[in-house]
């Protein structure tokens, strides 16, 4: 299927590694020009260089998405380099898991700042360009955790917030040819997850609760993002696509 994004420019936040890197690669393989952006300079530059080594169009722009001036610079440099911006994937995020009675304000604030405020700032920065050109795609990477997980009051709240934001923006911006959707991954075997000391326990528990008896792969998420970013998904907005192997609760 031709996704018809070969003339589009995509920003993928938190794309130095993991789901973000896989997503950027998939969009680039479909012909999009991609911006790898992260605070991890060395890894981000290596990811962009690896894409270019395979003949794909990619550039690295290091930015802290919790700072409005840096987000605006990210968008300005994207347009200066590639001539426009059409797709935004709000992927940046990380957990700070603790039971609520042990969760600090920093644990709460850091997760909210990166995932929820970062997505807000990025959407605000790209939206005028999307409106002017009458076309745009926003995909927020939420999580199955939006249903709630113990020790993840902060993470679950942020991921649920991304869904609420997407539904609100879908209503606001649809008249301009802009779609806003979410993907809610389940258990995905990223490098970060595989490095956890409890990885095998987490994996076995997740797979036992899924109809599809394997862990998810980063490419499972990347493929879903590519479809929602495409011309083919132009009548889909305000939706949450669960990529969980069939696990919901």
Structure, explained:
It is a single chain. Helix 4 links the parallel strand 4 and strand 5. This protein has a single domain, classed as 3-Layer(aba) Sandwich (Rossmann fold). It contains 8 helices and 7 strands; from the N terminus they run βαβαβαβαβαβαααβ. By secondary structure, it is an alpha/beta fold. 46% of the residues lie in helices and 14% in strands.
Task: Please specify the SSE layout and strand pairing.
Blueprint: E1 9-13, H1 18-29, E2 33-37, H2 41-53, E3 58-60, H3 68-82, E4 87-90, H4 105-133, E5 136-141, H5 153-173, E6 178-185, H6 191-194, H7 199-208, H8 218-228, E7 240-243
Helix pairs in contact: 1-8, 3-4, 4-5
| Gap between N and C termini | 32 Å
Count of alpha and pi helical runs: 8
Tell how many strands the DSSP assignment holds: 7
SSE string, helix = H, strand = E? EHEHEHEHEHEHHHE
- Any low-confidence stretches, pLDDT <50, length ≥5? none
At the fourth CATH level, what is the homologous superfamily? NAD(P)-binding Rossmann-like Domain
**Which class of secondary structure composition applies to the elements?**
alpha/beta
Helix content: 40-55%
> On the 0-100 scale, what is the average pLDDT?
95
Reported by name, the CATH topology is Rossmann fold
For the record, the count of structural domains works out to 1
Order of strands side by side in the largest beta sheet? 3-2-1-4-5-6-7
Multimerization status: single chain
Give the DSSP E fraction (strand runs of 2 or more residues): 5-15%
- The 3D shape can be described as globular
Cα Rg: 17 Å
Name of the CATH architecture: 3-Layer(aba) Sandwich
CATH class placement: Alpha Beta
**How does the major sheet shape up?**
7 strands, parallel
GO molecular function: 3-oxoacyl-[acyl-carrier-protein] reductase (NADPH) activity
Pfam family, one: adh_short_C2
Organism: Pigmentiphaga litoralis
Domain Ketoreductase: 8-186
């Amino acid at each position: 299927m031709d996704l018809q994004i070969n003339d589009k420019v995509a920003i993928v936040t938190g794309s130095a590694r993991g789901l973000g890197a896989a997503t950027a690669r998939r969009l680039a393989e479909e012909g999009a020009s991609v911006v790898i952006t992260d605070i991890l300079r060395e890894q981000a530059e290596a990811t962009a260089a690896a894409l270019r080594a395979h003949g794909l169009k990619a550039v690295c722009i290091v930015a802290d998405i919790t700072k409005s001036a840096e987000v605006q610079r990210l968008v300005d440099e994207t347009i200066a380099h590639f001539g426009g911006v059409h797709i935004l994937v709000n992927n940046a995020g990380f957990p700070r898991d603790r039971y609520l009675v042990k969760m600090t304000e920093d644990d709460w604030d850091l997760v909210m700042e990166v995932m929820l405020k970062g997505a807000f700032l990025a959407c605000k920065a790209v939206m005028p360009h999307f409106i002017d050109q009458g076309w745009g795609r926003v995909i927020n990477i939420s999580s199955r955790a939006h249903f709630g997980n113990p020790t993840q009051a902060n993470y679950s709240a942020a991921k649920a917030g991304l869904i609420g934001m997407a539904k609100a923006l879908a209503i606001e911006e649809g008249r301009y040819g802009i779609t806003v959707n979410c993907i809610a991954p389940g258990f995905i075997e990223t490098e970060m997850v595989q490095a956890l000391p409890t990885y095998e326990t987490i994996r076995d528990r997740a797979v036992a609760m899924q109809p599809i008896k394997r862990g998810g792969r980063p490419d499972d998420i990347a493929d879903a993002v590519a479809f929602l970013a495409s011309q083919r998904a132009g009548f889909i907005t305000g939706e949450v696509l669960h990529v969980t192997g069939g696990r919901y609760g």
